[in-house]
Input
Amino acid sequence: MPKHVAIIMDGNGRWAKKRLLNRINGHEKGAEAVRTIVQTARKLNIAVLTLYAFSTENWQRPQPEISGLMLLLRRFLASERQTMIDNEIRLNTIGQIDRLPQAVRDNLSAVMDATATNRKMVLNLALSYGARAEIVEMVKQIASKARQGAVDPEEITPETVAGHLYTRGMPDVDLLIRTSGEMRISNFLLWQIAYSEIFFTQTLWPDFGEDEFVTILKDYQHRERRFGAVP
Ligand code: FPP
Output
């Protein structure tokens, strides 16, 4: 089983459009798929599940869509709080959390506090997340430590870099899934996916469910991961 699964949840808008619905209806249905996949991941003993819920680029979307997404996120936190506690899931966020509305930050902090001691799975929500911004932040932190004399530039290793990313302490991504047929990485976890197995599926995120997730996990188990070495 992969330790760390990351998912680019794409296609909510197209799912809605096909049904002549509002984009927000697509995101609502997408939030239901999030619930299902979190439960499935927990059941299958995946240690870390990272979901790309909102990118730094998503701030460019129309304000009503942004507000709708923030509201859905708050609803999700309210409805899933007890399930996360019962299933020993710890909520964590990665991204520029200070850019989120205060009410969302308050809800996130409350659920993170309530689940802080849970050890069975980490649900990592990428919110206002961009990998390049994460890398810039990491460089700033290490440069500042070097200036203070706390880090010797000659001694910087891949572990130093990993230790200054939002995902510090977590394993690299083993399996990356993107729904909706787009074959792009879109500024997601650029460092952490260096050796990930990647799966693209045509399924739109609101239609992505347990069966397809399990099929992808089985396919993953048949892939030979060589990490650049010979078998
Ligand atoms: C991409 O679809 C999806 C998003 C930008 C947001 C993802 C949000 C959710 C799945 C729901 C809320 C999240 C949580 C954690 C409760 P798109 O809008 O880019 O679709 P399109 O490419 O078809 O237009």
